[in-house]
C-alpha cells in the first residue's frame, strides 16, 4: 500500500493552548445519579470524569446555569473495594515500591467508620496511615518551578485536605510517588526523621467510566464515607465536591469522548486509514491534559504500545502530527526519538512515547 503526504509547515511559536479530546455538557434536568448515568451513556459518553484541576475549571466553565443544590458527576463510592492513590494526577501507586513502616497500613479504611485512617504521613522515611484530620507539616511538589525549587517544605501544620489544597493553590500538588520522595531525600533538604504529610491517600471512590484518575476536589469534611446512603458525588459551582444520597434528583454533567482505542493490531499505515475510514484520524496529542486522557485509554490495549498519529519525515528531518499540528508538547521516553526513516510514534501503555518501525502490528487510538 502506497502512502503519500504533502506536508505544509507554517513556522511559528508553539502555543500552550490547544484543543481538547473531550468536552463537558451541563444537563439541566433533575435525575437520580443512576438515571443521570444512563442518560449520559445514551446521549454522550458517560457522567463527567475529571482528571485534574484544569478539567475542573473546564467543567465549571461549560455552563452559566445555577445549580445551588449541586450537580452530579461520575464519581461513586466503591467500598469495601478501596485502593491507594497519589494526589498528583498522572502519578500511579505501585505496591511493590511502597515504603510502609512495619505493621502499616494497619486498618481497613473506609469500611471501618470508627477508625478511618485514609491519609499517609512520612515518618523517618517510611509511611504510616493515619486519620486525615490530624495536622502535620507537609511537602509540596512544584513541576513548574515557580519558586525556583522542585520541593517546598511548608512548616505550618494543616490537615491532609488543607495541605493538598495549599499545594495545589501555590505550587502543583502534594509530593507524590516514590521517585519524587527519593529525589527529595537525595537533595538533603531536611532531616527525613521529621514527620510530614505526603500525597498518598486511601480512596473509596471510582469513576463511572472505569477511569483510574486520582484527582479529587472534596470540600471540607467530605466525603461522608461513614454514611452508606451518601455514596454518589456532586460538585457545587465553586468546584468543591460533596457526597449525597444517590436517589436525590439533581442536574448533572456529562462528557463527550473524542478518542477511541481500537483493540486490533495493524501497521501504522493500516491504522491511519482505518481511523480515517471509520472515525476521524489517528490521535494527535498537543497538551498534557490530552496526554493523560489518551494514556488512560492506552492502558486497556492488548499490545505493549499503541500507534498515534505521529510520523517522521526524512525529507524535512522532523516529526509531525498527521492532523497538521506542530509537535510542541512531547512525552518521549529516555533516548527517544532520534531521527530514522520509516518510523512513526507509538505510546507505551504507561504513557511514554517511542519511535517504532511502521510495519509493527499494534493497537491504535483514533480521534473521532
TrEMBL record:
- Signal peptide: which range, if any? 1-19
Region: Disordered, residue numbers: 220-243
The UniProt keyword set, sorted, is:
Disulfide bond, Signal
* Record bears the keyword Disulfide bond: yes
Which residues belong to any copy of the C-type lectin domain? 24-141, 136-255, 254-367
Under CDD domains, the record lists: CLECT (cd00037)
Q: Which Pfam families match?
A: Lectin_C
Q: Where is the composition biased (Basic and acidic residues)?
A: 220-230
**Name the UniProt record assigns to this protein:** C-type lectin domain-containing protein
Query: Native species of this protein?
Result: Perca fluviatilis (European perch)
The taxonomic lineage of its organism, from the top, reads: Eukaryota, Metazoa, Chordata, Craniata, Vertebrata
